Protein: CubicO group peptidase, beta-lactamase class C family
Organism: Flavobacterium segetis
Amino acid sequence: MIFIKKTKILHIFFLIIILNSCAKEKKKVELSDNELPKTTLPKMKPLAKVEPKLTASYIFLKTQEIKSFYSKNWPNNSLNGSFLVAQDGQIIYEKYEGYANFRDKTLITKSTPLHLASVSKVLTATAILKLVNAKRIRLDQKVNTILKEFPYSDITVETLLNHRSGLRNYAYFTDRDKTVWDRHNILTNKDILKIMATKDIGLEFKPDTRFSYCNTNYAMLALIIEKVTKLSYEKAMEQMIFKPLGMKNTYVFNYERDKDSAVTSYKGNKVEIGLDYLDAVYGDKNIYSTARDILKFDRARNNSNFLTPKLNALVYKPYSNERKGTKNYGLGIRMVNFENGENFYFHNGWWHGNTSSYITLQKEGVTIIALSNKFTRKTYDVRKVSSLFGNYPFRIKDE
């Protein structure tokens, strides 16, 4: 009888252990974006899979090849900025040269945040895509169902992302007519929305009939992020992307807070370029970051849990096919669809003296990043490095 009781006690004991183990296992299960409570924001996650380790001999060979490119592209270490090449998340080559500020000789280092210019669009698009993935908004959703003031009834979230909305560039409809906007006042995203709603700003063309790259699209996407998350764009980007990925040297420029402390930009002859009335608008630009932080971001975009496979395929789909050609645009990413079957995904940027280039070679797991705060088109020539890793025939003009 005593033996039976002891056996029952042991059974109960082991049952409790098994149940506790199951409970712990359940806690480890991560919810997908669309399973999250509506009060919880979808967030980027670092790349989960273990990436293959590059051999020392391979790294040495590629380093020599990249060094050769670097010395030709920026002779005498004339780069004023950051340059990084990585494969499978492992940095093969990085270089930091020049000054964040020529007056006080502040050097650019691996932790110096530089203006991403239009590469910021890739990050804005990423936040929007995470919200789509979480079913907080839809790609085909009309913008005026989210931003009630938005005056154009046929424009969708998708046509903002792929630049097929027909919106006019805010820089052009605010720079001449004082009855529309006085350039002595700093323009904001909400001002752009209000102007379009009240000043009879017509569309450039009927929505979704052709491609026209336009910064206004991404200024509106930033407002959508704010509306849906109930946070400022800055806070939403911090919570959804920067902090989860450990992007410690990345921030959204706040005009009042950062105008005197952010890295200065320069003309090619080192003449300082001051800020103007457009410098408070975000979403299309105004993210400052480092090459190493963008590498973290790129690897996270290659995570299998970044988006559903169906949505991820739409990101890299070429949307503008009215005219035959190799250049195209997806959802927040530029692309070249070469005739040899290779697809090259990238985004460039230019704002004031800042130039930027972000390249992601998905098949090869390669990330190439170049940032500069002294104007030069050589930033865009880093695409040539892609030919060291795959069959990318670069005989096309820089944009």
Remarks:
- Residues 23-27 have pLDDT under 50 and may be disordered.
- The chain has one domain: 61-388.
- The longest strand covers residues 343-351.
- The two ends are 87 Å apart (CA to CA).
